[in-house]
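Preliminary data (for renewal application), zinc ion complex.
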Amino acid sequence: MTLTLTTIPKEKLKNPPLKIHTLGDRDLRQPAKRVSKITDEIRQLAVDMLKTMYSCDGIGLAAPQVGIGKQMIVIDIHPDQPEAAPLVMINPEIKSTGGPQVNGEEGCLSVPSVFMDVVRPDEVVVTYRDLEGKPQKLATSGLLARVILHEVDHLQGVVFVDRVKNQSALNQELSKRGFKMKDVHPLPA
Ligand SMILES: [Zn+2]
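Predicted structure:
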């Protein structure tokens, strides 16, 4: 099966193919396993993850968020541009980060309607395999770097709320949306 990612319509489906797990679900906290072979099944998972992401107005989704413990993420920071190809990264590895530490508002399809500031490095270099199994390397900054770091966190069982500094604001936002502070696992600064 060859796959042209640009042919996946960026539309909201009434019934997205995959169900997104939310904060408090154990699947979000398991470290994901490396993908040893890129099969048609993996390619189909990428398509289903993208369709699910577009359906939920997301710009990134990691396999553990749909209950699949594999090192795979999909990203599209231009969901309004039909011709812009999404990114699929298999076995992504952050090789380096750089630039200033920047504050930016983040949300997550696994913590719907909660938006909080998170500090992350502005620049990232990531290696990964694409859907053909070719090794790739990407150096980027700004929003795309932030989304990559957010999604790679998911592969280690880390959710962005774990990185929020303002605990009282986080507590307030989470309880408004029916989430619990006990499901946040704060990271050492
Ligand atoms: Zn997320």
